[in-house]
Each structure stands twice: as C-alpha cells, then as structure tokens.
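User: I'm putting together a teaching handout on how sequence relates to shape, and I'd like one worked example. Could you take DUF3558 domain-containing protein from Nocardia rhizosphaerae, show the sequence you're using, and then write out its predicted structure as tokens right after it?

Assistant: Happy to. First the sequence, then the structure tokens directly below it.
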Amino acid sequence: MLVTAGLVVVGVTGCASGETSSVGTTTTVASALWNPCTEIPDEMLRAAGVDPASEEKGVGGHDQSGWEICGWDGREYSLTVYATDKEVAEFEQKPGNVDFRDVTIAGRPGREFRVAGASKELDCDVVFPTAQGVVQLQVLNRASLDDLTDPCVTIARVGENLVPTFPK
C-alpha cells in the first residue's frame, strides 16, 4: 500500500504519546490516541470500498510516535486514517499542504486539502478536529488506473460510512 504521498506527519519534540515521565513524585501519562485499526468495523471498511484483510498499521508497517495510523487497499484507491494530538492549524501551516477548503462529511465539519507534488491529483485528505487533536482521512487513487474518480469526490462518499466512527 502506498501511503507516503499524503503523509502529513508533523515533527515533534519532547515526550511521545504514551510515554510516561516523572519528576519527583508526580507521574503523568499521555492518554492513548483513538486507534482506527481497532475502532473502524470491517463492514464499514467494505462499504467504503476497501478490503479489511489488507490492513496495514503505521507507515510501511512501522508505528509512528504520536500517531495511530491504519490503511487499507481497495481496487481503485487506498484509504488511510490517522489520529494524532496535533491541531488543524499545524496541517494548514505545513509546507506542501495546499488547496484547503471547508467541507462537511456525514454532518461533521472538516478541512479538505491536497499535498503538492506529483501525486496531487491522486490524493485527497480531510482533517476533522477532535478533543485529542485531529483524525485525518486520506484517499489515494491508484496511479496505474485510468479514468478514476476525483479522490476528493471519493473521500466525501467513503467518509459518509467512516466519519461517524471517528471520535468527537
């Protein structure tokens, strides 16, 4: 599965999510991020046009500190869902993220964008604010196929099935 084209992982410093730090007698533990691999039901993935058995956690099977990432493959596109404690503004300020616009999917407001570069016309992303940060939904069309639907049209359609599972 090709998920790197639209990956918008923002650099972080300090403790990663899930790490424990202690100073004196005070201990803090970051709350666990929502996990799309365990929280999105298989029937919703099938309705979104992807195969639940193709699940890939992380990027290339590797976890990313401060993120929960899960992707699935379909015939015409791959679908990836990211959860992080980052804010929408960090996505808007990241160089290479372009063409932001407000959208509403499944009754929920979000910010749609593209990632500049060779795959710009193949990729569409939407970030939805949550209490923890954001959940990002990404559709990446298969470059090897012709006459594909605009990925931003596809993301709106598949989002109708998936967005209701996202945390608020």
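A couple of points you could highlight for students: The helical segments are 36-39, 42-47, 88-93, 151-162. Residues 1-29 have pLDDT under 50 and may be disordered.
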